[in-house]
Structures are given as C-alpha cells and as structure tokens.
Amino acid sequence: MEIVLGILIPFFGTTVGSLMVFFMKNSLSKRVEKILLGFASGVMIAASIWSLLIPSIEMAEEQDMIAWIPAVIGFILGILFLLVIDCIVPHLEGGKAKGIKSKLKNTTMLVLAVTLHNIPEGMAVGVVFAGVLAGNTGVTIAGAFALAIGIAIQNFPEGAIISMPLKSDGMPKKKAFIYGVLSGIVEPIAAFITLLLTSTIVPILPYLLSFAAGAMIYVVVDELIPESQKGELASLGTIGVTIGFVIMMILDVTLG
User: What is the Cα 37 distance to its own chain's centre?
Assistant: First the structure.
C-alpha cells in the first residue's frame, strides 16, 4: 500500500493543479508560481543526488562495478533522452510552438508535450520504489517518497498550466479539468510498469537510477529554473530553490 500510494503522489499533484480551473479566474499568481517552480527545482536537484545518484554509485560498488561508470552513463543517457524528446515533440515557449512544425493548436501541443514529459518522471518514481522493493540498493522508502512529493509539487503548476488555457479557449471547465488530469495519468502507469519489471531490472538498476537523475536534472535546467527566473520576482524562484533543496536534503539524510 505504501508503494501504491507513493506512485500515485505525482498524479495527485497534477490533479490538484488541474482543479485550479474551478477556483481561479485566469492563472496562478506569479509569486506563487515562481516559488513553487523554484521549490520543485530544489527538491528535484537534491533528490537526484541523494535518492538517485548516490544509491546508483553505492549499488554499483556492491555489484563489483567501477562505481562511477553506471552513474555517468545513465545520467548522460537520461539527459540525451529528454533532449531527443524536446527535438521531436511540439514544445511551447512564450506561447509559440518550438520544434516539429504542426497544425495542432498550441493548447493541444502543450498537453502533448507535458504528457510525454511526464513519462520519464513516472519512470523515475517507479525506479526508486523498485530499488526499495529490491532491497540492499541504498534507496530508502523515505527517499522514494520525498522524490515522489517533489515531482508532485512540480506537477501542481503543470496541471493548472494545462487546464486554464483550455478553459480560456472556450472549453467547459469540467472538460478542461479532465484533460489536465489525463496529462498526468501516464506517470503512475509508467511507474507501475517499471515496478512490474523489478526482478528484471535489478542488475541494471544503477544505470536506471542515474538515468532518472539525468532526466530530472534536464527538466530542472531546461524548464523549471528558466521559468522561475523569467521577468520580475526572479529572486522568489531562487529562494524557492534554496528552501526545496535544503528540505529535501534534510529529509533524505535524516530519514534515509
């Protein structure tokens, strides 16, 4: 039940964010959005180190590998994976489509882009909980939950960012909410599939943990931090990063 709850936490973040379409007129407050984006960035950076990379190195040592090789290879592959997705999938920046040319509406492209970006995040959650199930991997249940919560915090503004523009385009609130929720449902599905393969992936778990770390850092560097630093109130994003990193570090070191 703990693991089922853990893989559902990020989906809960998307759902709550999508609910904002019923309570907010236009969008999230800029102050709140920047603090949330910064906080999620800090949490995910710390989680990538303490919940993913360090366990990857420790597990590689236990398997008599050269400790840093799986961490380096997996991390680079995680970065490259999302880099390829960004080159292929229609991506929005500043309200205009970036990447492959498409006749789809901007809002449709946004839903598609966020949905596909959620897949590696779901895999990351699945990988850490697979590490918990496998045992002796250096991954703790506290670290796994902390990572899931960090992704959920990031998913909150994502859910709102999807549902609100759809409402602005004339879609009924209930339908906009459903689209927002559906964009996040791929995360528990990806996590569950990863969990089903636990016995198979244990030998390559060091690579998968660092792969998840690379994917997380890419999202932070390419999307979350730039968004939190745009325009005015950038300092709120910086404060959010600091608070998120420190809290996640304390939780992982203390509870881990």
Answer: 11
Specify whether the CB–CB gap between 70 and 137 falls below 8 A.
no
> Residue 42 contacts by C-beta under 8 Å, 6 or more apart in sequence?
240, 241, 242, 243, 244, 245, 246, 247, 248
Q: How far is it, in rounded angstroms, from Cα 184 to Cα 225? A: 21
> Taking a C-beta distance cutoff of 8 angstroms, is the pair 182, 15 a contact?
no
Task: Give the DSSP letter string of 208-247.
Answer: HHHHHHHHHHHHIIIIIHHHHHSSS-HHHHHHHHHHHHHH
What CA–CA distance (Å, rounded) separates 30 from 126? 32
Name the pLDDT band for 41 (thresholds 50, 70, 90).
confident
Full domain range(s) for residue 206: 2-21+29-255
How confident is residue 69, by pLDDT bands cut at 50, 70 and 90? Answer: very high
Over residues 108-143, the pLDDT tens digits come to 655 666 676 677 778 878 888 888 887 756 677 877
Q: Which residues make Cβ contacts (< 8 Å) with residue 170, sequence separation at least 6?
A: none
Do the Cβ atoms of 78 and 219 come closer than 8 Å? no
Q: Are 97 and 107 in contact (CB under 8 A)?
A: no
